[in-house]
Specification:
The protein contains 20 helices and six strands. It is mainly α and 468 residues long. The protein folds into three domains: 12-103, Fumarase C, Chain B, domain 1 (Orthogonal Bundle), CATH 1.10.275.10; 109-356, Fumarase/aspartase (Central domain) (Fumarase C, Chain A, domain 2, Up-down Bundle), CATH 1.20.200.10; 365-432, Orthogonal Bundle (Ribonucleotide Reductase Protein R1, domain 1). Helix 12 runs antiparallel to helix 13. It is elongated.
Length: 468
């Protein structure tokens, strides 16, 4: 079938046909296109718009095509797209009666429907894998509620925490990524079929019936909007970009923490490589590639937004060029998610090194300042100054945090305020002990083991609820 034979003179050149063809990336919507045609033909039959026997022949041919698969189609670029390839196949099976299949329908609303059908499934698959990742993190965190490590700000030692507490920061970020996709799904789950080219049709079609047959929640009501809107793609890729960012940050920490200087984690050999010349090397290649692929997802979002930004309503062929960038973003972000899940789940944490770092560099200084506020009713800024000077003197004198006592603090306090604090020495020692400091953080969201266990429980409830 050649659509050009009616209005146009001459056959499109092979270069022009290849340049405008979407067949290369239309393979992804093959099944959706069959479903779309089946639903539309069923509705046309039910509405009495086309003969019932011809509708049955069309549906039978579509079922045959579905069983045979996409390789049974003529995918020559001159066919233009998957919609014409499918129609040509049905025509080869039942003759000109196949033309009834296109009654009251345009490729414009058909492709918009196909894309939404496929993207809905893609989002659900990614969401399922996010939930799997969260569960893996929760299982890992449950084993490390007492595993002390140092927390960082500005990549400098900040305060003591636990590995479980840090892992939960990943889990909560992934929960929001899940929810962003859930919200985007609502905008994808809207049926444009029946919009036709842009102004619907004079045939008495039942748009709500095709919506129901295809499993959409609501209609995309305005027909111009129905054929020309691709904001659902931009929104989905935006959510995927943020998901990829979350994953890239996890990978970045694994890369840093696996260095000799940090020595906090060991990435499994299955997710590492060695050097072609330096036999001692264990390189975090998988994490590095995941980090780089995140940039590709960002690039797809920028490309999609740039294509869409200057398009007038309604349908323009430019929209065809958005689709490959959508699928690229979906595939890249999903692969980053899958590999990061497996990599983190097989990573081991060095408990001894975690405690060593927590003990080493005054990560408990805030607790010491808090102690002064609690015990001596000092303004926090005064306590902050005393502790800051105490740390400076200790570093200059090569004094470890564990060796600081009340007398040492009083020397500094007297220099700054003219008074001695005379803190209880046992309380000073406790305030400088990372493990004991962590146990005091019993505020919701804190690293105390009971708080972490409660958080793990709430996250498990979330995953179980969403998995139902």
């Amino acid at each position: 079938m050649n659509l050009r034979s009616g209005r146009l003179k001459g056959k499109m050149t092979s270069d022009a046909a290849s340049f405008t063809s979407s067949l290369e990336f239309d393979r992804r919507i093959f099944q959706a296109d069959i479903r779309c045609n089946q639903a539309h033909t069923t509705m046309l039959k039910e509405q009495g718009i086309i003969p019932a026997d011809e509708a049955d022949k069309i549906i039978e041919a579509l079922q045959k095509l579905e069983a045979e698969g996409i390789d049974s189609l003529n995918m020559d670029p001159s066919v233009e797209d998957i919609h014409m390839a499918v129609e040509n196949y049905v025509t080869s099976q039942i003759g000109e009666a196949a033309g009834f299949m296109h009654t009251g329908k345009s490729r414009n609303d058909q492709v918009a429907t196909d894309l939404r059908l496929v993207l809905k499934d893609e989002i659900l698959d990614i969401q399922a894998d996010i939930l799997k990742f969260i569960l893996n993190i929760l299982d890992m965190a449950s084993q490390h509620t007492e595993t002390v490590m140092v927390g960082y700000t500005h990549l400098q030692h900040a305060q003591p925490t636990t590995f479980a507490h840090h892992l939960l920061s990943y889990a909560y970020a992934l929960k929001r990524d899940y929810q962003r996709l859930q919200d985007a799904y609502r905008r994808v789950d809207m049926c444009p079929l029946g919009s036709a080219a842009l102004t619907t049709t004079s045939f008495p079609i039942n748009r709500d019936r095709t919506r129901e047959l295809l499993g959409f929640s609501v209609l995309l009501e305005n027909s111009i909007d129905g054929v020309s809107s691709r904001d659902f793609m931009a929104e989905t890729v935006s959510a995927l970009s943020i998901l990829s960012m979350t994953l890239s940050r996890i990978c970045e920490e694994l890369i840093i923490w696996s260095t000799y200087e940090f020595g906090m984690v060991e990435i499994a050999g299955e997710y590492s490589s060695t050097s072609s010349i330096m036999p001692q090397k264990k390189n975090p290649d998988v994490a590095e590639i995941a980090r780089a692929k995140t940039a590709a997802v960002y690039g797809e979002l920028n490309t999609i937004l740039t294509i869409l930004k200057s398009l007038p309503q309604s349908y323009n062929r430019d929209l065809q060029e958005v689709t490959p960038h959508l699928w690229s973003a979906v595939d890249n972000s999903h692969s980053i998610l899958t590999i990061t899940t497996d990599m983190l789940s097989t990573t081991t944490f060095n408990k001894e090194r975690g405690k060593e770092l927590a003990d080493a560099n005054f990560s408990t200084a805030t607790e010491l300042a808090d102690l002064m506020v609690k015990e001596k009713n000092l303004p926090f800024r005064v306590a902050h100054q005393i502790v800051g000077r105490t740390v400076t003197k200790a570093i200059e004198g090569r004094i470890k945090p564990s060796d600081i006592n009340s007398e040492f603090i009083d020397i500094v306090a007297h220099e700054l305020t003219g008074e001695f604090l005379m803190l209880d020495n046992t309380k000073v020692k406790d305030a400088l002990d990372p493990e004991k400091v962590v146990r005091t953080r019993k505020v919701v969201g804190g690293p105390a083991s009971e708080m972490v266990e409660e958080a793990i429980g709430r996250l498990r409830e979330f995953v179980n609820r969403e998995s139902e």
